[in-house]
Write a structure and sequence with these properties.
Bound molecules: zinc ion
Number of domains: 1
Largest sheet: 8 strands, mixed
Strand content: 25-35%
CATH architecture: 2-Layer Sandwich
Helix content: 10-25%
Shape: globular
CATH topology: lpxc deacetylase, domain 1
CATH class: Alpha Beta
Number of helices: 7
Structural class: alpha+beta
Length: 344
């Protein structure tokens, strides 16, 4: 399959020789922007509405950025929802973006995580309703979709968001921080749940496509049985099921097939954070640490970073500065509070 060529078929320095076609000159080794080779679609249900939705990804020109397009809405000028930190309007259960006209799209985070991991900069993403399909509750189906579409390197430099100063937010037992780093994005995440099947879990890693693919992409979203029941009673989470979430009842995993990774819960939280941090549409150079941090907290953290112009800088970077860790540069730990039982 042609999509297996993850890093595009042009060497990174190719654009430098391309001056006769009015293409900007880019220094050898500079990280270049990427889009996909061909349009591609998937269909699934929205986790909150329970309604089917089709997502179609289209290649886009350099410097377009990532744009959701609500193709079910009539007014053409009001359909586009560019991905930016400021357009995140709701991060309670999932990440929702809205434009000035009020058009919304929610549950974007797992798709965003896959885009961050692959370093896709430019896409127009058609969606025919207010929710991105939940698929299996992980980022793996989106990773597969992007793999099938293939990637193209574009003759324009990527610009990374470099963290220059520590930024920290606190909310009771929850905290999240960003620290400067020389290269790449490293992530550490800790969770601590009363449910004994989850317990205390942590993971730390340097983000790369291979780490994401091997250690994170398949981690599914999860919920506690009582929360799921409460949501269903309130008419929310209507598309949620054991097909697209891990559901836990104290020390019992209700999914018949159990977990995909021993620390699937914290891996999923880290996956969510990767998507949340990519809402700027730029690769981030820094160190992130989250303790029980939600989508909403991650968005507040990104807003706090961007609100201080001395805390960050946009810069043209080399592939090396974006960091490509070895595939095994991943650690996870799980202290279960009781032996986990599978669903009877
Ligand atoms: Zn998630």
């Amino acid at each position: 399959m042609d999509g297996l060529n993850w890093w595009g078929d042009e060497p990174a320095g190719e654009a430098q020789t391309d001056t006769d076609r009015d293409v900007p000159v880019v220094a050898l080794g500079t990280a270049l922007q990427r889009t996909i080779k061909t349009p591609i679609s998937c269909t699934g249900v929205g986790v909150h509405s329970g309604r089917p939705a089709t997502l179609t990804l289209h290649p886009a020109a350099p410097d377009t950025g990532l744009i959701f397009r609500r193709v079910d809405l009539d007014a053409e000028t009001d359909r586009d929802i560019p991905v930016t930190v400021e357009r995140v309007v709701d991060g309670r259960l999932c990440t929702t973006l809205a434009n000035d006209a009020g058009a919304r799209v929610s549950t974007v985070e797992h798709l965003m995580a896959a885009l961050a991991a692959l370093g896709i900069d430019n896409l127009v993403m058609d969606i025919d309703g207010p929710e991105i399909p939940i698929m299996d509750g992980s980022a793996a189906p989106f990773l597969f979709l992007l793999e099938c579409a293939g990637q193209t390197v574009q003759p324009a430099p990527r610009r990374a968001l470099r963290v220059l100063k520590p930024v920290h937010i606190n909310d009771g037992p929850v905290s999240a921080s960003l620290m400067p780093a020389e290269r790449g994005l490293s992530i550490s995440f800790d969770i601590d749940f009363k449910a004994r099947a989850i317990g205390r879990q942590s993971c730390r890693f340097s983000l790369s496509e291979s780490v994401f693919r091997r250690h994170l992409a398949r981690a599914r979203t999860f919920g506690l049985r009582e929360e799921v029941e409460r949501m269903h009673a309130a008419g929310l989470g209507l598309g949620g099921s054991l097909e697209n979430a891990v559901v836990v009842d104290d020390d019992v995993i209700l999914n018949e097939d159990g977990l995909r990774y021993e620390e699937e819960f914290v891996r999923h939280k880290a996956l969510d954070a990767i998507g949340d941090l990519y809402m700027s549409g730029r690769p981030l150079i820094g160190r992130y640490h989250g303790v029980r941090s939600s989508h909403a907290h991650n968005n507040i953290l990104m807003r706090a970073l961007l609100a201080d112009p001395t805390a960050w800088r946009l810069e043209t970077v080399s592939e090396d500065q974006l960091g490509q860790a070895a595939p095994d540069a991943f650690q996870a730990r799980h202290e279960a509070l009781a032996p986990t039982r599978a669903c009877a």
